[in-house]
Specification:
31% of the residues are buried. Strands 1-4-3-2 form a four-stranded mixed sheet, sandwiched between helices. With 96 residues, the protein is α+β, with helices and mostly antiparallel strands. The longest helix has 9 residues. It starts with a helix and ends in a 7-residue tail after the last strand.
Length: 96
Amino acid sequence: MKSTEEKHWTKVKQVVDGDPKSVLYEDKKDSPTLEEAREFIGGYIELVHTKAGAQLIIDEEGGFKPDLEVNAIASFLYGGTIVGNAIILIGDAKWT
């Protein structure tokens, strides 16, 4: 059985700047399901929007989990502190 990271690496094929905590989806056919997003994030998810028009799927309770590290890529895109894994949705991959 593949680990969570391996499954997402195979499906996404695009890790942002070599950081496995941030994955990027551009195509609707590859966009994660709700279950896949929850599994990768590791808990309840929250969908937030960036000023550039991208969507970020992040851990809704991340701020209450002191063991999660700051996600520099997601934080930069959002313009605030994001911790833990993040899924970046652009183009046709955005959730409606």
